[in-house]
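Researcher: Next sequence.
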Amino acid sequence: MLQNGLSVANVTATAVAAERDLGPTVRAPQGLGYHYPYAVIPGGVRSVDGFREAISADSQVAAHYADFDFARARIFTLDRDSAYYVSYRLESGVFWTTERIFVRRGETLITDGASLVQARSGSRLSEVPRFPVSSLEPTASELDATDIARRSSP
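Model: Next structure:
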């Protein structure tokens, strides 16, 4: 049981049902957040400043975003379903998918005009194949898998 009397199963079922209806930008119940196991930035980012802080706190992420132009950064909502090559993180580093992954309309993204970033996971999106890739690449469903987890204090 969670502090508010809900079970994890009830919260998960409610969140999954809401996501089906509202798309991937639905918010998790208060005090909880979505956890993406292959996120480049665990917990994702909620603002451009949060994105900048996450990059400065992690050398692997900093290397992955070395060319991102924060002077031009802005948050927006994807207005159409699209497919992109997606970056993901393993213990050994940050890698790219070898195939395009479906990204739904309504996804919150960050851009500098040249790069796209999924806010929920800090994963970079690309219309062209990128390197490095890994022989341990997760499937599309594994990349999109979510768990509900307690948010750490800000």
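Model: Residues 8-22 form the longest helix (15 residues). The radius of gyration is 15 Å.
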